[in-house]
Design brief:
An 8-stranded mixed β-sheet has the order 1-2-4-3-5-9-7-8, sandwiched between helices. A 4-stranded mixed β-sheet has the order 13-12-11-14, with no helix packed on it. Strands 6-10 form a two-stranded antiparallel ribbon. The protein is globular and about 65 Å long. The chain is of the alpha/beta class. It folds into 2 domains: about 290 residues, Aminopeptidase (3-Layer(aba) Sandwich), CATH 3.40.630.10; about 50 residues, no CATH class.
């Protein structure tokens, strides 16, 4: 099935990881100087500017017929995909392995590594005009939404990769494992019909999941395929552009998303390699063997011996004095049977 070796991915990741990017708060100022080192190998373009005037860049590389569009930080506070893309850029720039050559000879890759720099600057989901870009695919009120749609129509990709982060509440169904990576082949309408495009998207996801199960078994989930009429992925899929949604999630003790960054990199690399090597994308049934996401986690649970007044807490991220601070906020004051904490503290009464 054209699956990459874990040893290969581990070696190349540690060699090429972009060490200047770390943590969850990644802003335009953190990436703007990095573009210079890619100028010799990539075609770098300014697509336009955000609502507040920050440049939005694309990077293009490869000479193959299979076109793939990838974007990250559509939500400004979801940066794991951005870090993974810059790790990948280093691989494409420096590495001479056959796997890289195959991708670049078979595919043309177009990246937008920070679609929402205004949201990234203040660590919010929405853009500078308080618009959720992932719910703006129909109205396209935001400048950023217009830029992405214009790029999509001009480039005409066979596949898209839509990179997001998901909350720490998610687990892999019927396990106590956090959903470190979750996938979705978006629905095109309310009946969730298995169209040709969705099947092709599922086929690529099957390949990525097959690889990940070798390194993080039972830590991969399937995001809900409920149809969202205004969502980007749903509409791109409906328009005929196969769209793979990757949600980077929690891994034990990985609140700055550095472990999930690595597995996001693995997933993207595997997806690109699989597309490069594959011409028949019809085998999709393995997609439904990926367990659903469930929501059984709190970040911290205080357990009491009577179990009647257990307390659940979630971290809430805030920018305070130009630093990202995570505060614990109380969520529940009732019994939390069936729920689990990434950390649990037991009190006797």
């Amino acid at each position: 099935m054209n699956i990459l070796a874990i040893d290969f991915l581990e070696t190349i990741y540690h060699k090429e990881k972009e060490t200047s990017l770390i943590g969850k708060w990644i802003r335009f100022k953190d990436i703007k100087d990095l573009f210079k080192k890619y100028e010799a190998a990539f075609q770098i373009s300014e697509l336009g500017t955000s609502e507040k005037g920050t440049p939005i860049y694309s990077l293009k590389i490869g000479s193959g017929e299979k076109k793939i569009l990838l974007w990250s930080q559509m939500h400004g506070n979801e940066s794991t995909g951005t870090k993974a893309l810059f790790d990948l850029f280093n691989c494409l720039l420096h590495s001479k392995q056959d796997e890289i050559k195959i991708i670049l000879e078979s595919c043309t890759l177009l990246f937008v590594p920070m679609l929402n720099p205004d949201g990234a600057e203040v660590y919010t989901r929405v853009n500078g005009n308080n618009i959720d870009l992932n719910r703006d695919a129909i109205d396209r009120k935001a400048k950023e939404s217009k830029l992405l749609r214009a790029l999509l129509e001009e480039f005409n990709p066979q596949f898209c990769f839509n990179l997001h982060d998901q909350r720490t509440i998610f687990n892999v169904e019927n396990t106590k494992n956090p959903a470190t990576i979750s996938f979705l082949a978006p629905s095109e309408e309310e009946t969730r019909a298995l169209t040709v495009g969705r099947k092709e998207t599922m086929n690529v996801i099957v390949a990525m999941n097959t690889m990940l199960q070798k390194v993080i078994p039972n830590h991969v989930g399937r995001y809900t395929d409920a149809f969202y009429p205004t969502a980007t992925g749903d509409n791109f899929q409906k328009l005929g552009f196969n769209t793979v949604l990757i949600e980077s999630g929690h891994y034990p003790d990985d609140y700055i998303r550095e472990v999930s960054r690595k597995f996001t990199f693995y997933a993207i690399f595997q997806g690109l390699y699989y597309i490069a090597k594959t011409d028949n994308f019809t085998s999709y049934k393995g997609y439904f063997k990926i367990p659903n996401n469930d929501t059984v986690f709190y970040d911290v649970i205080h357990r009491y011996s009577d179990s009647k007044n257990d307390l659940g807490y979630q971290f809430r991220d805030e920018i305070i004095e130009n630093k990202l601070v995570s505060k614990l906020v109380k969520i529940e004051e009732t019994s939390l049977k069936g729920k689990f904490g990434h950390r649990e503290i037991v009190f006797e009464r």
